[in-house]
Predict the structure.
Amino acid sequence: MRFGKVVAIAAWAGLLAVASEAGAPGFDAGTPALGANMIAPGPDSFMVRLARDGAARRLASPACAQIFSDFVDGSGRPLQEQLDAYNLSGPEYLALVYFAPGAEDGRCGNEAVLATTHPGSRLVKVCGRFGQAYRKDPRWAEFVVIHETLHTLGLGEDPPSTYEISARVAARCR
């Protein structure tokens, strides 16, 4: 990793820590800082780690990384602009997203949902069926991680629909 990227990641981690402590929108208080384990312990944490690592490998490809230019945040800015402002690649940003077990109510109560987050939050809640889904189709679980990562950068939903987002991720990152 280039020195400039190390400095950028350190600065980003400091920003996340300060924003978390200040309760800034989009950051969850109590989320660990960079360097800490970004996947909470849980029954499916190993599968989440494998899916996140696979998603990072996919995002390292230019074709898949184009997904950040395909979608915009709530203010109409392409998600890639946010990554550029942080001086981070998709895989580097993904390393800053925190994955934790989700309660089996709310969005995780829907059997079609494997993970959920709110636009702009870097906390992704992983539903209990994620590990089973990973064992059945690791590629799809990786797409879900990328889909949720787009939301952490500010992508809303409806529009575009969950289906539209997932279809675009699958097309770009196969």
